[in-house]
Amino acid sequence: MSKEIDDLILELVDNGGGARSDDDDDGIDEYGPDLYKDEEDRRRLLALPEVERERILSERSEERQRNLERLEVRKLLNDGRREDTTRRSTRAKGSGTSRALNELTRRREEKHKSRSKRGRRSPTPERKRTRYSDESAGEASEIEEDDEYYAETKAKKRTPTLEEMQSIVLRRYQLEKWLYAPYFDRTVTDAYVRIYIGDDSKTRSSVYRLCKVIDIVDWHKTYKISESTTCKKALLLKHGSAERAFTMDIVSNHSLSQQEYTRFINTLEAEHVTLPDIEEVEHKAKDIEKAATYVLSDKEVSEMIKRKQEVAGRTINASMEQAVLLSKLEHARSMQDDQMAQEIQRELDLLKEVVDSDKPRQTRNELPRVATEQSTQQVKVEREREREAQRHRNDMQQRMKRLKDMKDGIAPMVHYLPLYRKVAEELGVSF
User: What PROSITE patterns does the record tag this protein with (predicted)?
Assistant: First the structure.
């Protein structure tokens, strides 16, 4: 029975309960300090992509740690057997086994505490453990639970795939749409964007970089994100360990490519910057989803319009404001919210009054300019008419001169007489 308990303990150390042979302990020395077997193994791994190579080295590190734990537990169990031989007591044997389990538990708890301190978030409070008894059933259950916890934590901390990362990469049209919304800062911060940094000198193709949004900052002057949106904010972006503010007009509207994502991951690893994990991606994806489905209140719409006017330094295009309000009105009617629909309609009526009140002032300002333009155009027309009349007179005089030359030189033919008379009449001379 004692031997069976020892075997069970050793299986639990293997983090999954699979049977292991004593020869597996040689794996501790199978790899060098840098986790490579030999030079050939090093060359093979260095030829692999960075992400794949790091995964293999991580697995080797975990394997080495498991083997070390197994040796430690086996040493403790052997000490227990020697006590059993000396004292001839099952109680002593139980003490040795219990001590081995206690030592294993202590080591795992220390590892758990260390990982919790290094992580940015502690998923759960430290679990309390009861003192191990001589019976191994409860002890095995506790260790298996601990293994499941580590497996779950590792899954949450894995690096996201390209498809998963796409869900938190914002496009320029989204930034433009949410720019003056109340949720803009909290939604965009900690998301990612794809920015244009220039053209490749060889291929002449556009080059983009994936960056994390660290903060929203003020820009030193106003600029246009698009033809209809003026802005005075910028994004503080981080790529690797470098940080810099960029305007939003260079943010891409297209998806992230695998090549760009791989380069981003390699840069983080090379500069020893923490990689994004799947838990972070899922959290930010929920923020973006909330922003996409957020319904603005009337007060928020008014504040957005006011902020746009302040940044632009002039009245915002009325058609844009009207489009926002009409969208709200349509939503209110679809929800059969008559009160909201009435309030939005009042805002639309107010907007119409403001636009109508601006028209007389605009007309007064336009009159002098229009009058000047009309006067200038009239002068141009009259001058062109004078030039045309002068060209016509010159042409007729030339024709008359040719006819007179013909008359002086030879007797005109009878059938030319009507033509001569017509030309003379147009010139107002006698023939």
Answer: PLUS3
Q: CA distances (Å), 51 to each of 61, 194, 262, 268, 272, in order?
A: 15, 21, 8, 11, 14
Cβ pair 269, 245 in contact under 8 A? no
Give the bridge partners for 209, in sequence order: 195
Q: Give the separation between CA 224 and CA 100, rounded to whole angstroms.
A: 69
- Could you give the CA distance from residue 135 to residue 84 in angstroms, rounded to a whole number? 17
Average confidence (pLDDT) over 293-320: 78
- Bridge partners of 211? 193
Geometric angle at alpha carbon 409, from 404 and 413, rounded to 5°: 80
What pLDDT is stored for residue 363 in this prediction? 46
Does the pLDDT at position 315 exceed 50?
A: no
Q: Give pLDDT, residue 200.
A: 85
Residue 72 neighbours by CB under 8 Å, 6+ apart: 103, 104, 107
CA 114, 42, 62: angle at the middle one, nearest 5? Answer: 25
Which tokens belong to 202? 């060889």
250-267 as b/e: b if 16+ CB within 10 A: bbbeeebeeebbeebbeb
**Amino acid (1-letter code) at residue 79:** D
Considering the entire predicted model, what is its pTM?
0.42
What's the CA gap between 264 and 272, in Å, rounded? 12
CA distances from 25 to 20, 28, 64, 66, 68 (A): 9, 6, 9, 9, 8
Domain extent listing, the chain? 2-156, 162-294, 301-370
* Helix intervals (H) in 293-337: 298-312, 318-334
**SS3 state of residue 18:** coil
Each residue of 382-402: pLDDT tens digit?
A: 777 777 777 777 777 777 777
Q: How is domain 162-294 classified at the architecture level of CATH?
A: Alpha-Beta Complex (3.90)
What stretch of H or E contains 426? helix 417-427
Look at residue 33 in the predicted model and tell me its pLDDT: 72
Kindly report the backbone phi and psi dihedral angles of residue 242, in degrees, each rounded to the nearest multiple of 5, phi listed first. -90, 140
Residue 120: phi and psi, rounded to 5, are -75, -30
3-state secondary structure of 410: coil
pLDDT at 271 exceeding the cut of 50: yes
Share of the chain above pLDDT 90, in %: 27
